Amino acid sequence: MPEMPEVENMALGLRAVIVGKRIGEVRVVTRAMIRGPHRRQWRRFLGELAGRRIERVARRAKRLILVTEADLALVFQLGMTGKFLLPPGGAASQHKHTRLVMAFGDGTELHFVDMRRFGRLWCLRDLDADDPDAALEAAGMTPLGPEALRIRRQVFGEALRTQRPVKALLLDQTRIAGLGNIYADESLWAAGVHPARAAATLDGEQAGVLLRQIKNVLRRAIRAGGTTFSDFRNAYGDMGRFRRRLKVYQRHGEPCKRCGATIERLVVAGRGTHVCPRCQRL
Questions:
Q1: What percent of the chain has pLDDT over 70?
Q2: Is residue 71 within 8 Å of 64, Cβ to Cβ?
Q3: Element (H, E) at 63
Q4: Could you read off the pLDDT of 237-268 as tens digits, one per residue?
Q5: What are the extents of the domains in the chain?
Q6: pTM for this prediction
Q7: Domain covering 153-275 in this structure, CATH number
Q8: Which positions are annotated as active-site residues?
Q9: What is the CATH code of the structural domain delimited by 4-138?
Q10: Distance CA 219, CA 69 (A)
Q11: How far is 174 from 152, CA to CA, in rounded Å?
């Protein structure tokens, strides 16, 4: 499933290529992906996009937002395998799992490709891409907490006041938005915190270290283009390079790169979890 660094890289790539282009038409291949208040009138809504210029590409947690003139917006929830591609051959090179095609006036196209079909699309009006939460929630999308990259230390400390395992808290998008399984494991390892530890048992210094490592890990992953195991590609079809820099995720049975102990795989908060039993004592 694409996580925040992967979605951020998609946004960066699209921002560089499609902002300023005028939409010719939007063709939906898989109607079941459409959600929200315009679900029944989606053809009319998409018809209004014709001739409008794309003004912004934004990201909120793992959601990607395209905003046109007159503040018409397409909000994509990528699901497990959703991604955007800019095929050099346009329709001639359409992927077999393409679910939506946005054709531009200059003859180029943007394809939304989703093998597992869990991706969703909301059509929204009057969306402020810089502060979209109210509109997204009104459209029926799950409320989100503050972004992991921007959350303040005090707010993070308040979120930790729970007996839930700290990893469960980090994966709860309503409390802290943007962290997924890969980067939660990497951040906890970097901070020396066991994923099953009750969040409230972290003292102020430990909370500060964990927050700093979360932001460090996410920034490094963004610079590396994200992490590719099977499906993720950026808009140009390139794989993420952060997989080569993983310290603990999916390295069970291998030696810890910090202390040499054997990495273990556990299940915490219903998710496969990777931990060093020596660096991250419970």
A1: 93
A2: no
A3: strand 63-68
A4: 555 578 888 999 999 999 999 999 999 999 99
A5: 4-138, 153-275
A6: 0.90
A7: 1.10.8.50
A8: 2-3, 62, 271
A9: 3.20.190.10
A10: 31
A11: 16
